[in-house]
Amino acid sequence: MRDPHRRTEFQVERKEFTIRNKLGLHARAAAKIVQTSSQFKSRIRIVKNGREADAKSMLDILTLSCPRGTRIELRAEGKDAAEALAALAVLFNNNFGEE
Amino acid sequence: MFPGNARMVLQGIGVAPGIAIGKAYRVDRDKVSLVYYYLPSPAQIKREKDRFNAAVERAEADLKEIRSKMAGVFPEHAYIIDTHIHILRDKMLYDETVRIIDQQAINAEWALRQALEKAQQIFAKIDDEYIRSRFSDVDFVAERILQNLTGQNKQSVAGIRERVIVVAQDLSPADTIQLQVEKTLAIVTDMGGKTSHTAIITRSLDIPAVVGLEKVYHAVRSGELMVVDGHAGKVIVDPDEELLNYYYERQYQFERYRKEVVRCAELPAETEDGYTIRIQANIELLEEVVAVIDNGAEGVGLYRTEYLYLNLDQPPDEETLFWDYRELAEIIYPETVTIRTLDLGADKLNTRMRGSTETNPALGLRSIRLCLQEDETFRTQLRAILRVSGITKNVKIMFPMISGVGELRAAKTVLEEVKQSLIQESIEFDKDLQVGIMIEVPSAVAVADLLAREVDFFSIGTNDLVQYALAIDRVNEHVAHLYEPLHPAILRMIKQAADAGRQAGIPVSLCGELAGEPLYIPILLGFGLDSLSMNPLAVPRVKKIIRNASIEESKACLEEVLQFTTAGQINDYLCELAWRRFREDFELFTDEMGKLPAASSVGQ
Hints:
The complex is a heterodimer.
Chain A: E1 11-18, H1 27-37, E2 43-48, E3 51-54, H2 58-64, E4 71-78, H3 81-93
Antiparallel strand pairs in A: 1-4, 2-3, 2-4
Helix pairs in contact in A: 1-2, 1-3
Chain B: E1 6-11, E2 13-16, E3 19-27, H1 42-73, H2 78-88, H3 91-104, H4 108-124, H5 129-133, H6 135-150, E4 164-168, H7 173-178, E5 184-189, H8 197-205, E6 209-211, H9 216-219, E7 225-229, E8 234-239, H10 241-263, E9 269-270, E10 276-283, H11 289-294, E11 300-304, H12 318-332, E12 337-340, H13 367-373, H14 375-392, E13 395-399, H15 405-424, E14 434-439, H16 442-446, H17 448-452, E15 457-461, H18 462-470, H19 488-504, E16 508-511, H20 521-526, E17 531-534, H21 539-547, H22 551-561, H23 567-581, H24 583-586
Parallel strand pairs in B: 3-4, 4-5, 5-6, 10-11, 10-17, 11-12, 12-13, 13-14, 14-15, 15-16, 16-17
Antiparallel strand pairs in B: 1-8, 2-6, 3-7, 7-8, 9-10
């Protein structure tokens, strides 16, 4: 059993996603990722073929260039890594509320 | 060309129709001039960072205010401003500038400029054109911060006090949004194209606009009198009184005519003597559906499906296509949507064919030929269309570039197999789904009677038909003048295809630019077609002219035209007829007094 008082320890979480919305990680989708990521303290990165982008930087995400079909990994490191990843997973699985 | 004189006449791309007359107001978007200096002490470095932060905070407050004003009017564009707000604090711009101030002990303007250049280099390396072009957003945001830093407040479009014609090199989305509609007579810019933000927003605001003028910004002084013709894409600077009067008159007539035409857009296109033809719209994007409905089009006669396949590593999946088609079909219901299967060249579809070059792509592996080879892509699209048909029952399938019966049967065999697999999976589709073809290859015209027995409808695609029949590449400037839609050969081919369809008892439609050209209406009616499909903006005017036409007269007109020997003769005849029969529908669309232009094509 996990001690509830120790839940705030440093965590490392990772999860893979495929970009499924029509336009890929373009401006609107990137803005939503930044908005969500910025609510957490953890360091969050988007990794694509060994290259990575800071999920709290709109321009980093844009310049990572992820069209539809791209496979990426989300990595979160920090005390709220699990929560951060769960929140981002909702966004990714929802295709950022787009088609 | 027209009566009177002017200091200058510029030709650009008309993106929002209407005529405006007024004073020029130049919106300065030149870069602010910057000073560079070193910071001698740590205390000054600290102050400089605070100054930078304050400039960013002000920019943020300004943008938030713009966004709140905008959310009510353009909710769908508000995200552009959100994007800009995120960029303000982005580490590539904000953190980097602070770091440079610290490390190099230089002023904020200079540091920001360096951070911007670094970002530009990163963006320049990106393959994806859309993302590469987003650097303009970064540039725009940096410019805003710089303005705050230097205190050089440029003329803002929000500060305009009288009714003016806005003249700019380019307008950012935020600029366009801040325009005060009641104070803006028209917009003219050096940059931009038909699909730029300026174009989309001005059209929705109903402000005349001409873009792509290249040199208007430097050629015009603020306060100078101008005329903007958003239909012809013309900008006239400092006209004399005679010319001015001419345009005042045109403006008045144009407004009156436009109101009348749009008011009646919902009425059917029924001739004086009771012949009704369906007027449909050609669209490429789901978003255009608004224009289809607003302009009174009776369904979508041609949905071009290529857009979803562009700029992707792999073709889109079935679900993506399904939802796109379904949404369109549901909005258009109870009218119908004719979905054309993929009409792409091999170079545009990212498959194993990518990178192979063809010496003659127009005659190469493209369209239905490519689909029959790239079997999986084709089946996925057909499955998506069939599934939608089962739900909405208002969908039709159309195969492009069919050259003969063999190719048609091959395509229908694939369709049949896809249907069988859906039956096995107990997935519903419309059992009465109509399957038609584009008639756009000359060989298809020659065997139209044979093809007509095996399909439910024809749609004559004139753009490609003219290109293939006359052996003319219309974008090749050396031969573009030979691109003649009224060439007697083309008219005979249309007639042959239309007759073959009628004899077989199947409906025949005509899509392509020819369909939306008001001048050609008498001959189009004469062919006895069932429907015309065109740019949605052209629909109201075409419908109005048809309501004033007569089928008997049109048939006689076509018969006479088919006796002529050259396209020039036919054009002259149609101009004369239009002038005589439909004067009020044409006189506003001519630049030459009393004489009609060869073709105006954009419609209203």
